[in-house]
Automatic annotation (TrEMBL), chain A:
It holds the Pfam family CENP-X. It is found in: Nucleus. Transmembrane segments: none annotated. Keywords: DNA damage, DNA repair, DNA-binding, Nucleus. GO terms for biological process: DNA repair; kinetochore assembly; replication fork processing; resolution of meiotic recombination intermediates. This is Centromere protein X. Its main location: nucleus. One of its GO terms (molecular function) is DNA binding.
From TrEMBL, chain B:
Keywords: DNA damage, DNA repair, DNA-binding. The keyword DNA-binding applies. Transmembrane segments: none annotated. One of its GO terms (biological process) is DNA repair. CDD domains: HFD_CENP-S. It comes from Gossypium tomentosum (Hawaiian cotton). GO terms for molecular function: chromatin binding; DNA binding; protein heterodimerization activity. Residues 1-11 have a biased composition (Basic and acidic residues). InterPro entries: CENP-S/Mhf1, Histone-fold. This is Transcription factor CBF/NF-Y/archaeal histone domain-containing protein. Residues 1-22 are annotated as: Disordered. Belongs to the TAF9 family. CENP-S/MHF1 subfamily. Residues 12-22 have a biased composition (Acidic residues).
Length: 127, 109
């Protein structure tokens, strides 16, 4: 019963969020997130290639038997990208909401550094 | 052997510089989006938010996306895949039940 109620609440919030999204709330562009991911993955692939070249001199090729010689970078599918955009947006909105709660409790109307500091520990645990 | 290493490091240096300028551009665009999302959310909560704090949150988000990219790649490779799927994104949110649940329901749409 409790779980169902919680689930309903989450679904409600998502509907509200998507309604707002359709109208005014800014979101992250999937293309931007894809470009950032791609850049990080290409860099990682290059690093792996370099360490691969350095390792083959020292180690047996047994270890490299299962992997392909050419290291291709990872890529993501469009739905995963959209979900990642949503995840990032939630990260920011959660941070702001939590900091706003702290600011409100302190009686301020402006979110300042001290409010942000208070939310950081729980933020790092949750994300 | 040494000559080859020198040539490669020059090429690598060039690539790195180009990489850096691309990454700067991406980071700036990301920051702009992050700032507008944060400000819109602050308005929704009925609060003002000071500019350095918004910039701080944008930087935090940029660090987070770096971590997210690494995690997603690890999950995909661990599952023997070359491409990242929605399941990977949902798994990366495993630390927070509510977050994972809401991502899951978004993914069903």
């Amino acid at each position: 019963m409790e779980r169902r109620r919680r689930k309903c609440k989450i679904e409600e919030q998502i509907q509200i969020d998507s309604a707002i999204n359709d109208n005014e709330t800014p979101i992250f562009e999937p293309d931007l997130i894809r470009a950032i991911f791609k850049q990080i993955w290409i860099r990682k692939a290059r690093e792996r290639e370099v360490t691969g070249i350095q390792n083959t001199d020292a180690m047996d090729s047994e270890i490299g038997a299962g992997t392909s010689k050419k290291i291709r970078p990872t890529f993501s599918n469009p739905n995963a990208l959209k979900l990642s955009c949503e995840l990032l947006r939630i990260f920011i909105t959660e941070t702001v909401q939590r900091a706003a709660t702290i600011a409100e409790a302190a009686g301020d109307t402006k979110i300042e550094a001290i409010h942000l500091e208070r939310v950081l520990p729980q933020l790092f645990v949750d994300f | 052997m040494e000559v080859d290493e020198d040539n490669r490091s020059d090429f690598e240096k060039e690539e790195e510089e180009e990489d850096d300028s691309v990454s700067d551009l991406l980071r700036d665009r990301f920051r702009l989006s992050a700032i507008s999302i944060a400000e819109s959310e602050a308005k929704r909560s009925g609060m003002e938010i000071s500019p350095p704090i918004v910039a701080c949150i944008a930087d935090l988000a940029f660090k987070y996306i770096g971590q997210l990219a690494k995690d997603l790649e690890l999950f995909a490779h661990h599952a023997g895949r070359k491409s990242v799927t929605m399941t990977d994104v949902i798994v990366s949110a495993h630390r927070n039940e509510h977050l994972a649940a809401s991502l899951r329901s978004i993914s069903y749409r």
